[in-house]
Write a structure and sequence with these properties.
single chain; mainly alpha; two-stranded antiparallel ribbon; about 50% helix
């Protein structure tokens, strides 16, 4: 099945895929001291998935790309995540026509 390659690609970025019939969700979790590494993994994974989908049959619907960040940590970690969201929009926007955060 063509999605086996996609699962492997996501797992290469130390993230967990969850595939439905027409939907792919990518999950990651970490402790407070590893937020930077997780955010880098997510960024790299989103770019790799966009590249994979443009080269394979399933087409990415960029209108349906969503990113969620959940944290119980203090404001410094939240500020770091907000900077990452801004970077994500600037660096990955070429792969996706829009990202809803």
């Amino acid at each position: 099945m063509y999605t086996a390659d996609l699962v492997s690609l996501i797992q290469q970025h130390c993230l967990s895929p969850h595939l439905y019939s027409d939907d792919t969700q990518i999950y990651g979790a970490c402790g407070p001291s590893d937020v930077g590494a997780l955010l880098q993994n997510v960024t790299g994974c989103l770019i790799a998935v966009a590249d994979w989908m443009s080269a394979n049959w399933p087409q990415l619907n960029s209108e349906l790309v969503h990113v969620a960040y959940v944290s119980s940590e203090s404001p410094p970690v939240l500020r770091y995540a907000l900077k990452w969201f801004h970077h994500l929009q600037q660096s990955v926007i070429s792969a996706f026509s829009s990202i809803k955060i």
